[in-house]
Amino acid sequence: MLMSPEKLDSTLIEKRVKLHIFQPSKRKIWTVVGVENEYWLDPELDFCSCPGYYFNKKMEKNMLSSKIT
């Protein structure tokens, strides 16, 4: 699910986006602090811990499997 430009701007202005770099691997995980929860993002792995991401991926998988059968 994409954020509206206004919501994205307010998230950035309020500094609710954090980058964590782990040592020694230099692995990067982004954290976005929402109203009720914190979500982890890893763009390199195409992953987000938010529920919308999970359900969208599940829907894509179901659609793909129905096309194959």
- Summarize the biggest pleated sheet: 4 strands, antiparallel
Number of strands: 4
**Overall spatial form:** flat
Give the count of structural domains: 1
Quote the average pLDDT: 83
Q: Poorly predicted ranges (pLDDT <50, ≥5 residues)?
A: none
Q: Helix count, per DSSP?
A: 2
First and last CA, distance: 27 Å
**Secondary-structure-derived class:** alpha+beta
Identify the strand order in the major beta sheet.
1-2-3-4
Approximately what portion of the residues adopt beta-strand conformation?
25-35%
* Elements, N to C (H/E): HEEEEH
Radius of gyration: 15 Å
**How much helix is in the residues?**
25-40%
What does this structure look like?
This protein has a four-stranded antiparallel β-sheet. The protein starts with a helix and ends with a helix. The model has no long low-confidence stretch (mean pLDDT about 85). The protein is built from two helices and four strands. With about 70 residues, it is α+β, with helices and mostly antiparallel strands. The protein is flat. The chain has one domain (about 5-69). It has helices at about 5-15, 50-69; strands at about 15-20, 30-35, 40, 45-50.
Q: Any chance you could write out the topology, listing elements then pairs?
A:
Elements: H1 5-13, E1 17-21, E2 28-33, E3 38-42, E4 47-48, H2 51-68
Antiparallel strand pairs: 1-2, 2-3, 3-4
Task: Give the tags.
about 70 residues, alpha+beta, flat, about 40% helix
